[in-house]
Design goal:
heterodimer; A: 107 residues; Arc Repressor Mutant, subunit A; two-stranded antiparallel sheet; elongated; B: 151 residues; Alpha-D-Glucose-1,6-Bisphosphate, Chain A, domain 4; 7-stranded antiparallel β-sheet
């Protein structure tokens, strides 16, 4: 996973309204209209948020008949989890290095 | 529900010392250039501080002096445990949780166990991904932590 990918994901979810749009999809795939009906934002705004989420890899669109359904993309979430996983590896490794640097094992 | 991310590492010092380095010297060891809000704009953060009390903040001072609050201290027990909410890069109404525990080992060393939980707040479909995601931790431990601990 590239640095840019996780950054896009975090940036996409940092906006509270956009996160509400994303969380609404947890209940299952929805068309734009149905999402807009449950959120205090206009339909064009919901579309814009979905575009950002989609660009970040968090949401996928699929055509069902005449409707376009938006759904959570498990790949995007997995990417986020992978990043978090490696993130803590980096952090703890640096912490252990610091201890090793400052601690005298013979003391 | 999603299993938390759990990491542990053994360090050659007592828990009190490990806790102190973790909390009070976090700016000297935290990867400021790679893992900070500031880093996303291409500049290393200036510092990270943990206000050492329950209710205190975990704060990044970004390269331009702006603050980014990463979380709030929930538990603060020197030599034993630090717990915080954790929401860098996102607003604090959707925090995950970080627990860092320090356990004494018989040889005078300390096992530091980090548990990052609650990230399913992002989506409850997280659970179905677990099956796809079982690789990695052991390998990373073997390749990265082993050598670091052997220093």
């Amino acid at each position: 996973m590239t640095y840019e990918t996780h950054h896009e994901i975090l940036a996409a979810l940092a906006d509270p309204t956009r996160r509400r749009v994303f969380e609404a999809l947890r209940r299952g795939p929805h068309p734009v209209g149905a999402l807009a009906a449950t959120l205090p934002v206009s339909r064009p705004a919901v579309s814009q948020h979905l575009r950002v989420l989609s660009d970040a890899g968090l949401v996928v669109v699929r055509q069902q008949g005449t409707r376009r359904l938006y759904a959570v993309n498990p790949e995007g979430l997995r990417a986020l989890r992978h990043w978090l996983d490696g993130f803590w590896d980096d952090v703890l490794t640096r912490f252990a290095d610091e201890i090793a640097k400052t601690e005298d094992p013979a003391a | 529900m999603t299993d938390p991310i759990i990491k542990s590492i053994d360090v050659p010092c007592l828990p009190e010392r490990a806790f102190e380095v973790f909390v009070t010297r976090i700016s000297t060891w935290w990867p400021l250039g790679g893992h900070s809000a500031s880093a996303s704009s291409g500049h290393a953060a200036r510092s990270i501080t943990i206000d050492p009390r329950v209710g205190g903040a975990v704060i990044e001072i970004m390269h331009d002096g702006a603050q980014d609050i990463w979380g709030e201290v929930l538990e603060f027990e020197p030599g034993r445990k630090l717990a915080t909410t954790w929401h860098p890069g996102a607003n604090k109404d959707a925090p995950t949780r970080l627990d860092i525990e320090f356990h004494a080992l018989p040889n005078g060393h300390c096992r530091v166990t980090l548990t990052h939980s609650g990230w399913e707040i992002w989506a409850d479909r997280a659970n179905e991904m677990r099956g796809n995601y079982s690789t990695g931790w052991d390998t990373v431990f073997g390749q990265c932590f082993g050598p670091a601990c052997a220093v």
